[in-house]
Amino acid sequence: MKVEIITIGDEILIGQIVDTNSAWMAVELNKAGFELEQITSVHDREDHIVQALDQALTRADVVLCTGGIGPTKDDITKQTLCKYFDARLVFNEEVLRHIEDLLRHRRRAINELTRTQALVPDKALLVPNRVGTAPITWFEKEGKVVVSMPGVPYEMKTAMSSDIIPRLQQKFTTPEVIHKTVLVRGIPESALAITIAGWENNLPDTLHLAYLPDFNLVKLRLSAVSFTPELVKAQLEHHLAALRNILRDAILAEDDIPAEQLIVERFAAGRLTLATAESCTGGNLARRITSVPGSSAVYKGSVVAYSNEVKTQVLGVDTTLLERVGAVSSEVAEAMAVGAKRLLHTDYAVATTGIAGPGGGSDEKPVGMVWVAVASPGGVISKEYRFSLGRQLNIERTTQTAMLLLLDLLRGVRPESLL
Amino acid sequence: MKVEIITIGDEILIGQIVDTNSAWMAVELNKAGFELEQITSVHDREDHIVQALDQALTRADVVLCTGGIGPTKDDITKQTLCKYFDARLVFNEEVLRHIEDLLRHRRRAINELTRTQALVPDKALLVPNRVGTAPITWFEKEGKVVVSMPGVPYEMKTAMSSDIIPRLQQKFTTPEVIHKTVLVRGIPESALAITIAGWENNLPDTLHLAYLPDFNLVKLRLSAVSFTPELVKAQLEHHLAALRNILRDAILAEDDIPAEQLIVERFAAGRLTLATAESCTGGNLARRITSVPGSSAVYKGSVVAYSNEVKTQVLGVDTTLLERVGAVSSEVAEAMAVGAKRLLHTDYAVATTGIAGPGGGSDEKPVGMVWVAVASPGGVISKEYRFSLGRQLNIERTTQTAMLLLLDLLRGVRPESLL
Question: What is the pTM assigned to this prediction?
Answer without folding.
Answer: 0.81
